[in-house]
Design brief:
Elements: H1 2-29, H2 32-35, H3 58-71, H4 73-78, H5 80-109, H6 118-143, H7 145-149, H8 154-176, H9 181-192, H10 197-201, H11 205-220, H12 225-238, H13 249-258, H14 275-280, H15 284-292
This protein binds protoporphyrin IX containing FE.
Residues 68-69, 72, 74, 86, 90, 93, 97, 137, 141, 155, 158, 162, 224-226, 229 line the site of protoporphyrin IX containing FE.
C-alpha cells in the first residue's frame, strides 16, 4: 500500500509536467485563427482608428498580467461579492504555494530545532484563508441563481475535494506533527533527501492521504482553468497587439491559411475554393438574388 502511494505521487508529478508541456506545444503549433480562442480581450484593435493609438509595450503587458493574477481584477469589476470569496481563496492558495516552497528549502537549509512558530502561523493562516474562501465560493455557486446557471455539477465535487484537502492538511500538521515545526521540518527533510527509503515506502496515514490528495490536484492541473489562464496570458504576452503589417510574419501566416481549400459548403460558403476566394468573392446564388431585387 505504502509503495503504491509513492508510485502514485511521483507518477502524478511526472504526469503533470508532461501534460503541461504537451498542452503548451499543442498551443504553440495551433494555427493563428485557433489561437484567437485564447484572446484576452481589450485589445488596441477594438478601438476606433487603432493605428493612431500608442502600441502597448511588453513591460505594460507584463505589469497588467501580474496585477490580473495577484488581484483577480476582472472579477473585481464584474462581480464584487463573488470576487471577495474568490480572492480569499486565491490569497490562501498563493500563500500555501509559497509556504510549500519555503518548507522544502528550510527543511534542508535550516537546523530544525531552531525553527520558529512563524512558519506554523503562516501555514495555518493560508489554509484558513483558502478554506473560508473555498467554502464561500461553494455556497455562492449553490445559492446564487446566476452563478449556478452554467456551473457543471462535477465542479461542486471539486470544491468538496478542495475543502477536504485543506482540512486534512491542517489535521496532519496540527495533530499528527503536534503543531511542531521542528518535527515537520525533520520529516520533510528525510522525504526530500530520500534519507529513509523504508519510511518513505511506509508513510503514516496522515501524510499518505495528504500526498494522495495532492496527486489528484497534480493530475487535474493540466486540464484546469490554471493551464487555460496560463495559455491565455502567454497568448496576450506573445501574440496580442502584434500588428498585421505588409510583408510581416503575421501576414505570411494568414496568407498561408487563406490558401487552404474549403472542405464544406453552405449558402454563403462554396466548396472547392480557397478561404481567400471565399472571403473576397460574393457567392453566385447570393449575387443573383441581389440582382433580382
Ligand atoms: C488571473 C488569474 C486567475 C483568475 C481570474 C482565477 C479565477 C478562478 C476562478 C473563477 C475559479 C473557479 C471558481 C469557481 O469554480 O467558482 C478559480 C479556481 C481555482 N483557482 Fe484560480 N484564478 C487565477 C489564477 C490562479 C492561480 C495562479 C492559481 C494557482 C497557482 C489558482 C488556483 C486555483 C485553484 C486551485 C482553484 C480551484 C480549482 C479549479 O477551479 O480549477 N488560480 N480561479
Amino acid at each position: 500500500m505504502g509503495s503504491a502511494v509513492v508510485i502514485i505521487f511521483y507518477g502524478s508529478i511526472l504526469f503533470c509536467l508532461v501534460g503541461v508541456v504537451v498542452r503548451l506545444i499543442k498551443f504553440i503549433k495551433m494555427p493563428v485563427h485557433l489561437k484567437w480562442e485564447f484572446y484576452k480581450g481589450s485589445s488596441i484593435y477594438e478601438q476606433m482608428e487603432w493605428w493612431t493609438k500608442e502600441q502597448v509595450n511588453l513591460w505594460e503587458k507584463v505589469k497588467s498580467t501580474i496585477l490580473d493574477v495577484l488581484l483577480l481584477r476582472e472579477y473585481y469589476h464584474r462581480n464584487r461579492p463573488f470576487w471577495s470569496v474568490l480572492y480569499l481563496f486565491h490569497l490562501g492558495i498563493y500563500l500555501l504555494i509559497l509556504w510549500h516552497v519555503w518548507l522544502f528549502i528550510a527543511s534542508v537549509a535550516v537546523e530544525p530545532e531552531t525553527a520558529s512558530t512563524a512558519g506554523l502561523i503562516w501555514g495555518h493562516t493560508a489554509t484558513a484563508l483558502a478554506f473560508i474562501g473555498g467554502l464561500g465560493i461553494l455556497i455562492k455557486r449553490i445559492t446564487d441563481s446566476e452563478l449556478k446557471l452554467y456551473y457543471p455539477p462535477l465542479h461542486y465535487i471539486k470544491w468538496v475535494v478542495m475543502l477536504f484537502t485543506l482540512l486534512e492538511a491542517f489535521y496532519a500538521v496540527q495533530y499528527y506533527f503536534d503543531a511542531s515545526m521542528p518535527a515537520l521540518l525533520k520529516y520533510v527533510k528525510t522525504q526530500v533527501t530520500f534519507g529513509d527509503i523504508e519510511h518513505k515506502l511506509h508513510p503514516p496515514p496522515a501524510t499518505a492521504i495528504h500526498v494522495l490528495l495532492a496527486s489528484i490536484w497534480l493530475i487535474y492541473l493540466p486540464f484546469s482553468h490554471i493551464m487555460r489562464l496560463f495559455l491565455r496570458y502567454y497568448h496576450y504576452l506573445v501574440y496580442d497587439d502584434v500588428p498585421n503589417v505588409k510583408g510581416g510574419p503575421m501576414e505570411h501566416k494568414i496568407r498561408k491559411l487563406l490558401g487552404l481549400s474549403v472542405s464544406w459548403s453552405a449558402p454563403h460558403i462554396q466548396k472547392g475554393k480557397t478561404w481567400g476566394e471565399v472571403a473576397t468573392e460574393i457567392p453566385k446564388e447570393l449575387s443573383k438574388g441581389a440582382a433580382g431585387k
